[in-house]
Structures are given as structure tokens and as C-alpha cells.
Design a protein that fits this description.
alpha+beta, 7-stranded antiparallel beta sheet
Length: about 170
């Protein structure tokens, strides 16, 4: 009997101790010294990053782009006239931006800020990619690949920053 009373008393004390933690008036644990990080609110990204074919052509300098795939999470455009260029938009939901560097092999990543959002930019001989946090545990990703003639090459990786900024500006 005394054993049952002792176990009940220990359980009651444990429950009351846990219930009292973090409540008004203090806590029984050590004081916190770090500031809690509040994640940014996730935003709604429109289909294909909310940009038009004309927006992509204007940002990249590529003409004759044609959309070849579209769904709520990924879209792609190819350049016509025999050029070997492609632009891809992807929206990663529930995935940390900081997981992306381990998945990209274009070269050394560099950190960037796009419209106040942290991002990562990669640049290789024939491709560029930018991944930018879009709020919550989501990020957007723009990729430009190409191996066409020198005169038809895209203007540069900074153009992807403009596409990412356009996407974030139109997000709601």
C-alpha cells in the first residue's frame, strides 16, 4: 500500500513540476539566454513563380522561350531555334533552404539577400542557380542552364536574382 502511495505521490509531483514549467511567475529550469527565433510567415507562391514568359525573357536576355512543363511546384521553359538553354522554377515546401547546398554541385555557393530574404547563389560554366527563403520552411529556386553559342548566352547569374525578387514581390 505504501509503495502505491509513494508512486502516486512521485507521479503527482512530476506532473505538477512539468505543468509549472514556463508558466507565469517563472520556471524551475535554467534561465534562457538566447532570443527565440520566430520563423517568417510562409507565403503563397503563384504557379510558375508568378512570372510570365516575357518576364523571364527580359530577365535572362533569352528570346523564344517556350514553357514546356508547368505544375504548382515546378515549371520549365526551353529556348527555341536550336539553342540549348533552359530555365526552371521550383518551389520547395517544408524544406530548409540550408539543406539545398548539399544537393547542388554547380560550384561554391555564395550567400545573397533578395528582397530582404536570405538566399544562396551557385554559378558554374553552363548553369546558375539561386535558392531564396520564401517564408516559413519554404524556399524558391530558379535555375538557368545553357550551352548554346557564345552570342546567345544568358546575361548572367544576377538575372536569377531579379526573377527571385519578382516571384517574392508577387507572393501573397
Amino acid at each position: 500500500m505504501w509503495k502505491q502511495v509513494a508512486v502516486a505521490a512521485v507521479m503527482t509531483c512530476a506532473v505538477l513540476s512539468v505543468a509549472g514549467c514556463g508558466g507565469p511567475g517563472g520556471s524551475s529550469g535554467p534561465a534562457r539566454t538566447s532570443v527565440p527565433v520566430v520563423p517568417a510567415q510562409a507565403v503563397a507562391i503563384g504557379r510558375c513563380g508568378s512570372v510570365s514568359d516575357a518576364d523571364i525573357s527580359r530577365a535572362t536576355g533569352l528570346t523564344g522561350l517556350q514553357q514546356v512543363a508547368a505544375n504548382p511546384m515546378r515549371c520549365s521553359w526551353d529556348a527555341g531555334a536550336g539553342d540549348d538553354y533552359a530555365v526552371v522554377f521550383q518551389w520547395f515546401r517544408g524544406t530548409s533552404l540550408w539543406d539545398r547546398p548539399g544537393q547542388v554541385t554547380l560550384g561554391t555557393p555564395s550567400t545573397v539577400q533578395v528582397a530582404g530574404h536570405p538566399g544562396i547563389l551557385w554559378s558554374g560554366a553552363n548553369a546558375c542557380e539561386i535558392a531564396v527563403a520564401s517564408g516559413g520552411a519554404d524556399f524558391i529556386d530558379w535555375i538557368l542552364t545553357g550551352s548554346g553559342p557564345e552570342s546567345a548566352r544568358p546575361q548572367g547569374c544576377s538575372d536569377l536574382e531579379q526573377l527571385a525578387a519578382d516571384t517574392l514581390a508577387k507572393a501573397g
